[in-house]
TrEMBL record:
Keywords: Membrane, Transmembrane, Transmembrane helix. The keyword Lipoprotein does not apply. It comes from the Bacteria. This is Calcineurin-like phosphoesterase domain-containing protein. The chain crosses the membrane at residues 7-29, 35-58, 79-99, 111-130. Gene3D superfamilies: 3.60.21.10. Residues 157-322 form the Calcineurin-like phosphoesterase domain. SUPFAM superfamilies: Metallo-dependent phosphatases (SSF56300). Pfam families: Metallophos. GO terms for molecular function: hydrolase activity. Signal peptide: none annotated.
Amino acid sequence: MKNLRMLLTGAVMLLVLGLVNFYIGYHLWILLKDVLPGILAGVYWTIFMLIAFAYMIGMVPWPKVVKPAARLFKVIGSYYLACMEFAVIMLPLADLLYWVLGLTGFDRTAFTAEAGITLVLLLAVFLIWGSRNAWSTVIRTHPVRIEKSIGTSVPLTVAVASDLHLGNIVGNRHLRKMVAEINRMEPDIILLAGDVLDDSIEPFIRNKMSLQLRQLKARYGVYAVLGNHEYYGGSIAQYTEMMAGIGIRVLQDEVAEAGGVYIAGRKDKTAESMQGGRMSVPALLEGLDHSRPILMMDHKPTGFDIAAKAGVDVLLSGHTHRGQIAPNHWITRRLFELDWGYLLKDKLHVIVSSGYGTWGPPIRLASRSELIRLEVLLEGSKSYQEEPLSAKTVLV
């Protein structure tokens, strides 16, 4: 019954996707017929549908000999996904305008060409600006005050990165920049809050990305948790072994001690449906000394009330990308209590990152590639009494 439900869901999704792409393709066909009168319908629709479904084609586990072509399809398809979202928003508006002009008796002879050129120009601006937002990173500093002490007189600096999505699109160039920026913070602890991989581990291995991650330096170590995309990739054991080999511990419902602070790492919520569940927060924290600071990573930003009651001091999440491309952030804002930024829940400090990398198209609109610099101000430190709590954002 479960397999049948999944099959039916997949069939419905393919049907909807096909109809949406036919709608987009038809409008493009009308425009191209004006520009290229001799274009053949069969040639056009074959090329268009290959591009429209290129991302899905690229994700098929092809034989090794055709994998380079599949990677190219995935890159092309990723950009098409951004174009598709743009078209789904803009084309109905253009159709509505066309209909209204017809009601008013306006001559619509040149409308198709003029509207088409306008939309192409707007799409170019969208792609250029969105690419800038995706590859140009900001560092957001969040000072948090915790009424606990570890006997030090200086605050702890914790560098946080989530949603790297390392793969065929986000590669070594962007990763090297992340490593350099994090090391420049001179952090005491580095936390990777899930979705380090973009599904498949193959490009991570092929491009030797672990050699870049190995360069991360922190006084008390580097820790990570799994995100939903590590589960989708199906190589968790291999991934965690590789990370351990470069000195990064992947916490799976585990707690580590780092510089007098507890680092709790939950399995991703995906484990509840794919790998037999995960521990509750109270069970995970059972037996800990709650007079010491507890920082917890949970990739998907849920369960704030439970974490607060269980005694977590700082909860770090990602997953949402803040919608990545507007107006998706209107959706994530409704789906999550906090889809991006900072929230104080009783004594719990919640920080949700929009992520460093991207899923699908390397495009962001109303969202930025970001790294988090967390300044943990503890009792006994001079800054605990004097430091004003104000977040800062720096473009790098």
